[in-house]
Amino acid sequence: MRDTDNMEAEMEYDDGEEEPSFSDPEDFVDDISDQELLGDVLRDKPQEADGIDSVVVVDNVPQVGPDRLEKLKNVIQKIFSKFGKITNDFYPVADGKTKGYIFLEYSAPSHAQEAVKNADGYKLDKQHTFRVNLFTDFDKYMSISDEWEAPEKQPFKDFGNLRHWMEDSDCRDQYSVIYDSGERTGIFANDVKEPIEVEERAMILLLFLYVVTFSPLMDTKDDPQAIIIWDVLTGQKKRGFHCESSAHWPIFKWSPDGKFFARMTQDTLSIYETPSMGLLDKKSLKINGIKDFSWSPGDNIIAFWVPEDKDIPARVTLMQLPSRNEIRVRNLFNVVDCKLHWQKNGDYLCVKVDRTPKGTQGVVTNFEIFRMREKQVPVDVVEMKEGIIAFAWEPNGSKFAVLHGESPRINVSFYHVKNNGKIDLIKMFDKQQANSIFWSPQGQFLVLAGLRSMNGALAFVDTSDCTMMNIAEHYMASDVEWDPTGRYVVTSVSWWSHKVDNAFWLWTFQGRLLQKNNKERFCQLLWRPRPPSLLTQEQIKLIKKDLKKYSKIFEQKDRLSQSKASKELVDKRRTMMEDYRKYRERAMDMYNEQRPLRLELRGGVDTDELDSNVDDWEEETIEFFINEEIIPIGDLVLPWHYMPKTVFTSSHRRKTFCFLRFSKRRTCTLVYENGTTVVCILLHSDYLILNAQQGNKV
């Protein structure tokens, strides 16, 4: 009511004042369209439609009779209902069978468009792959003119060189750094002197083709929601799965080419195809007791192992996909556990087998080495009787390293898988402080690291001749990351592991420390991967052959870089000196300007000249005796490792001084004050014996 009264009061006019008119003049022309005034409202105005925008046509549907029609409808309903509510369907029939195409009507046109986008190309089985189109597209294609018209030329949109960073003249790789508790991410170019920031953002999102999510909430039998695979580009749910147990993560493991993914449940191995997300050959593999499986990183081959069952031995099986052919089966006995370790290129598979041989109480470890590139996949065995701490393959080679033993007697052994069917022990280092092995991506070099509980002990090893290049430490280090070239390696202390001393250090592959970079609440560093080289193997061999020629060019460039750094330092110092000179000139000008004021304050006495008349000074020398020590030089014996570079002695009370000069060649020179020189030779390894008088030889 109060607001109404105020409005009425505002509408009252003073006596005699004419009420304003809001009518348009007679000659007014309204030139503003409804679209300009009410564009946002008109856009939401319901459009007249005949319903065909919500209809899709599905081709390549199985042709079935009346006895199987209901089952087909259930399958179609299950596949297409995930895109929206289906209000009507029509299955054309001829000669007692469906014609192989159907019509589905959705409740909204957007649902129909979603079905076309995601179901087109869906593989129902080996003979039937759906082709899905909008019904309205048929009218569009039927009305295409018979006369061809050249399409309008579209302007070129330049996305830039997406691999511009590989054209860096100094061949600097890049890495990302997550810090500030994960709130900020920076991209840096690796430089020997200091990192060069390329870009920094509050958040950087990573893009994948598919993403898998897990929800602990209960789902229904008909609508699995525990595990969902999403299409990242469209945000569309590709498929949902039930989850019997979340103890093993990741639930799915993907093939190297992304065409297949697999999951393991009790006594079952299920392999799915992309992009249809359907089971390979419409059925899972029944494998009683399956414990673990792993994809080869180089081929579509799955390795899995099954434990012993009564009189049936344990076995490791290699299966080729999609044919499901078993290319190798290896039976094992007295098995406690198995671990699968693939070499990076898939050339070798190591199965670490923990066994309890009959008649013994301890556990023995066998390394079953499968040679994947040879006929019938032969297997070699290496046996170790100590506990295994870590195992790692050389990425681009045929060597592997093993940490074994117990602290404080941890040993590392290096093995070489030779072409003649033998595996040789190359070298063993004992008493190592390490619990992890990190190979260089290019092979040959590795870092033995004692992470976390071992306080960051580091050992840099060259496996070509098995030399320990350097031993160092990064206290409380939690991670080790090699750069793609194998020239540099980073050790770091992550805020996710420790809340103090968060930083990353840059080392050369030889173990020389280059940088210590502290970042507030540093979390993680990852190197930017390099795409596969475009060079052929012959070209790479030629480059290695001419490496000395290229090395000279790189060494010259390094010297130029160092001289450039020296020049920058000289320029910096020269600038500082010039700044100081200018400052001194300003100070002298101020000093001279204040001279009359100083004279006035000091009664006319020019104190500036008091310390400048050096000629009027008088010099007086005072000598007094402090102490005298007499050291006879006869039969003087000095331990060699305690000798200073210069030793002063005196010749009795005549105060003629001499001193000894020692050299690296185990000789010394005895020089007297009067210029006489005596050369002394070291007679024994530990002592220098002096028994000399002036002018005599030792």
TrEMBL record:
A GO CC term attached to the entry: eukaryotic 48S preinitiation complex
Stored SMART domains: RRM (SM00360)
Keyword Lyase: no
UniProt xrefs under PROSITE patterns: RRM
One Gene Ontology biological process: formation of cytoplasmic translation initiation complex
Region ranges (Disordered): 1-26
InterPro entries: EIF3B, eIF3B_RRM, Nucleotide-bd_a/b_plait_sf, RBD_domain_sf, RRM_dom, TIF_beta_prop-like, WD40/YVTN_repeat-like_dom_sf
UniProt keywords, alphabetically: Cytoplasm, Initiation factor, Protein biosynthesis, RNA-binding, WD repeat
Sequence ranges assigned to domain RRM in this UniProt record: 54-137
Molecular function as annotated in GO: RNA binding; translation initiation factor activity; translation initiation factor binding
Family of this protein: Belongs to the eIF-3 subunit B family.
Subunit note: Component of the eukaryotic translation initiation factor 3 (eIF-3) complex, which is composed of 13 subunits: EIF3A, EIF3B, EIF3C, EIF3D, EIF3E, EIF3F, EIF3G, EIF3H, EIF3I, EIF3J, EIF3K, EIF3L and EIF3M.
Free-text function comment from the UniProt entry: RNA-binding component of the eukaryotic translation initiation factor 3 (eIF-3) complex, which is involved in protein synthesis of a specialized repertoire of mRNAs and, together with other initiation factors, stimulates binding of mRNA and methionyl-tRNAi to the 40S ribosome. The eIF-3 complex specifically targets and initiates translation of a subset of mRNAs involved in cell proliferation. Component of the eukaryotic translation initiation factor 3 (eIF-3) complex, which is involved in protein synthesis and, together with other initiation factors, stimulates binding of mRNA and methionyl-tRNAi to the 40S ribosome.
Protein name: Eukaryotic translation initiation factor 3 subunit B
Species: Cyprinus carpio (Common carp)
Species lineage: Eukaryota, Metazoa, Chordata, Craniata, Vertebrata
